[in-house]
Amino acid sequence: MRRRAADYRRPVRRRLWCWIWSVLVLFCLGGLVLFVIQHNHNADRTVRFSSEERTATFEEVNHRVFNLTDEIASATSFSRQLAEQMTLAKAYIIIAKDHNNLHLAWELSSKFRKSQLLLSAAALRGEPLTLEEAGPVIKSMSALIYKAQDLHYDISTTITTMQSHIQALEERANAAVAQNVVFGQLTVESIPRDIHCSIIKLASDWIQNPTLRNVADELRNSPRLVDNNLYHFCVFSDNLLGTSVVVNSTVSNADHPKQLVFHVVTDGVNFGPMQAWFLSNDFKGATIEVQNTEDLSWLNATYLEASRDMKGSSFLNRLRFYIPDVYPQLEKVVLLDDDVVVQKDLTSLFSIELHGNVNGVVETCLEAFHRYHKYLNFSNPIISSKLDPQACGWAFGMNVFDLIAWRKANVTARYHYWLKQNEDRTLWKLGILPPGLLAFYGLTEPLDRRWHVQGLGFDPNIDSRLIESAAVIHFNGNMKPWIKLCIERYKPLWERYINMTHPHFQECASS
Ligand SMILES: *[C@@H]1O[C@H](CO)[C@@H](O)[C@H](O)[C@H]1NC(C)=O
Ligand SMILES: *[C@@H]1O[C@H](CO)[C@@H](O)[C@H](O)[C@H]1NC(C)=O
Ligand SMILES: *[C@@H]1O[C@H](CO)[C@@H](O)[C@H](O)[C@H]1NC(C)=O
Ligand SMILES: *[C@@H]1O[C@H](CO)[C@@H](O)[C@H](O)[C@H]1NC(C)=O
Ligand SMILES: *[C@@H]1O[C@H](CO)[C@@H](O)[C@H](O)[C@H]1NC(C)=O
Ligand SMILES: CC(=O)N[C@H]1CO[C@H](CO)[C@@H](O)[C@@H]1O
Predict the structure, then answer these.
(1) Does the residue 506 lie in any domain?
(2) What is the pLDDT of residues 151-173, one digit of tens each?
(3) Which ligand 5 atom lies nearest to the CA of residue 280?
(4) pTM
(5) What is the pLDDT of residue 131?
(6) Ligand 6 atom 5 nearest Cα
(7) Whose CA is nearest to atom 13 of ligand 5?
(8) Most buried among 24, 102, 172, 289, using CB within 10 Å?
């Protein structure tokens, strides 16, 4: 009986291995493609440098990178064997941690680091790894991987972990591309010149046209802005095109656009142009209020002081933690980021039961990666004593906020509390998501995934049916639809909501 059982299991194991290896091969190919893309960026950069700047050192570095690429692609090289093992080891580190097998995870990590060191040493000196160097590491890593495999982790864990691992790597590769000099240049170059030109024309419209300003003044006192029978949306942004697409796509897909109210807050530079744009275009009768951060002076020294240490996130970004203060009469709002496109009527969001929670949001932990421990330092007792490291993460972009529950739970005070705890930056480093995860902890209601589909700014392989079924798609990531370096497949989804035949765009394009 026992033998039969063992015989029966073996083909399953073999299939698992086949599967793992095929994922691995695919993954390596993908990695290679990314590597080559990166390399091409480097090459691009070389071309952009003037001949004086093109020093020997620079060429040398590029040259070495190229040779390492070849080396890893070679079927017989030790670097390649090591790189493949590292991928597998990485996946098993995650699985082992998920199963609380910390010792195994630790052993694998230490071998992983050793391999990294070997590879980087080889890259630095520009020569392939030798059998003497690589042999012992490859052997001991094989033993560990065999041990991990022997612990019978089920196939579906392996599949999902591998997938999310690949996704996370892609994310990181894209981030690396973004930090690239080339990317910086592209971003600046590709905020198209004619858009700059149009924004200036809109600013002068605002200054020169008293009718526009009168209409805006009237709107400021409109009872619709505080009417809780209407549907209220907030957009805080300095990006005119992005904000216009958010508003236009929302009204274009609404069953009753006249019942929608948009509360846009922007900075001093964009205030005039946004006013002029929203007043002189047709948004199907929706109410659109534009405010200037400079006029939110009551968000006074106390509050600004509390978020003073939030380096790297602008005032507009942080404003989301003060929504009940900015709109004291409102009871429920939907917050939309300026890089989303709305594809369905959103009014039913407002009637979803939040069960007393403050924040209705789509969670992101379908992938094993996006849990709280990924964002926050759980070595710190302030965090680990109060939060569950496995709690599911989420992302800003489309949030339903119950402002009554918010005020009752003092979420803004919680936000201030966590900022204060993080004065020495040991809880998290950057961004508004970590303090958001903390401030809304235990006050979050998960929504159906189709309300908010993310990743259009970094993941080129999102399922078309998922995108089609999404109420809101989010271009989070670096490849925004308004820049040259965007993902072509998704660009039309955004572009169709901006009317480029506006006279200013026409004049600016031809000038
Ligand atoms: C700052 O604003 C808060 C909330 O609006 C208010 O309670 C407080 O009195 C203000 N402080 C100052 C110094 O104006
Ligand atoms: C919210 O904060 C106020 C003032 O800081 C405090 O009086 C009140 O008890 C707090 N409420 C809760 C539920 O923590
Ligand atoms: C995490 O918190 C611990 C305990 O406060 C601290 O020693 C460590 O430096 C923190 N890690 C980071 C990366 O800040
Ligand atoms: C709004 O989107 C529609 C497509 O649904 C487009 O025809 C129209 O030109 C857009 N309006 C503006 C002001 O961009
Ligand atoms: C686009 O803008 C032009 C000029 O403002 C306007 O005449 C036209 O009707 C708009 N088209 C759509 C589809 O909104
Ligand atoms: C494997 C490989 O392409 N190696 C290259 C490393 O750099 C030298 C010098 O340019 C080339 O001759 C090699 O072909």
Answers:
(1) yes
(2) 645 554 555 555 565 556 555 55
(3) 5
(4) 0.66
(5) 80
(6) 67
(7) 499
(8) 289
